[in-house]
Automatic annotation (TrEMBL):
UniProt-recorded name of the protein: Hypoxanthine phosphoribosyltransferase
EC number: 2.4.2.8
Pathway(s) where this gene product acts: Purine metabolism; IMP biosynthesis via salvage pathway; IMP from hypoxanthine: step 1/1; Purine metabolism; GMP biosynthesis via salvage pathway; GMP from guanine: step 1/1
Keyword Nucleotide-binding tagged: yes
All residue ranges annotated as the Phosphoribosyltransferase domain in the record: 16-164
Presence of keyword Cell inner membrane: no
A GO MF label: guanine phosphoribosyltransferase activity
The family this protein is said to belong to: Belongs to the purine/pyrimidine phosphoribosyltransferase family.
EC class name: transferase
Required cofactor names: Mg(2+)
Annotated localization: Cytoplasm
Lineage: Bacteria, Bacillati, Actinomycetota, Actinomycetes, Actinomycetales
Keyword list, A-Z: Cytoplasm, Glycosyltransferase, Magnesium, Metal-binding, Nucleotide-binding, Purine salvage, Transferase
Gene Ontology CC entries for this record: cytosol
């Protein structure tokens, strides 16, 4: 899918495919340095983190394993509440493992701060967070991801794994939706 398939649903491209791939390469270089001599267990948060996981993992030279979690955060509409339910847990025992959570976006941070606390109780050797996007103006927690791709404005974004009503995840770039898309609902 590309911008031509979106009709006039796209207001603006925020991050191009090239910008995303270049930034992920930089992040992978830093991660390789930080984890030299170790193996990493990458934990992707379904479904949004699928693209970040696929591209970041392929840029790493460090040996990795990949596992996935699915969580739902209860809340009204598009706002997360911080009350989180595990829909799919890890298949891996993370005790004594170096865990790196891979996320698409940190918005309020409530989902990830719950997830971080949950994983910490399982006795991993280390736990860090890599996120492609972060909205600093939306932060409601003091969660500190070690690796951040881009800080973005507090607006709803789609593409590169991120959806609106389950659509647009397969855009290779990150974009802002045109207001008329929201206003229909
Ligand atoms: P919190 O607020 O808990 O949100 O950090 C985490 C989850 O909410 C989703 N989210 C978005 N999805 N465009 C999206 O398509 C956005 O701008 C956006 N902001 C938050 C996302 O699933 C994230 O993991
Ligand atoms: Mg997500």
């Amino acid at each position: 899918m590309d911008a031509n398939d979106m009709g006039n649903d796209l207001k603006k491209v925020l991050l191009t495919e090239q910008q995303i791939q270049d930034r992920l390469a930089q992040m992978a270089e830093v991660i390789d340095k930080d984890y030299a001599g170790h193996e990493i267990l990458l934990v992707g948060v379904l479904r949004g983190a699928v693209m970040v996981m696929a591209d970041l993992a392929r840029k790493l030279h460090t040996p990795v394993q990949m596992d996935w979690m699915a969580v739902s955060s209860y809340g009204s509409g598009t706002k997360s509440s911080g009350v989180v339910r595990i829909l799919k847990d890890l298949d891996t025992d993370i005790k004594d493992r170096h865990v790196l959570i891979v996320e698409d976006i940190i918005d309020s941070g409530l989902t990830l701060s719950w997830l971080e606390a949950n994983l910490r109780t399982r006795g991993c050797a280390s736990l860090n967070i890599a996120t492609l996007l972060r909205k600093p103006d939306a932060a409601k927690t003091n969660i500190t991801p070690r690796y951040v791709g881009f800080d973005i404005p507090n607006e709803f974004v789609v593409g590169y794994g991120l959806d609106y009503a389950e659509k647009y995840r397969n855009l290779p770039f990150v974009g802002l939706l045109a207001p008329h898309v929201y206003e229909k609902h």
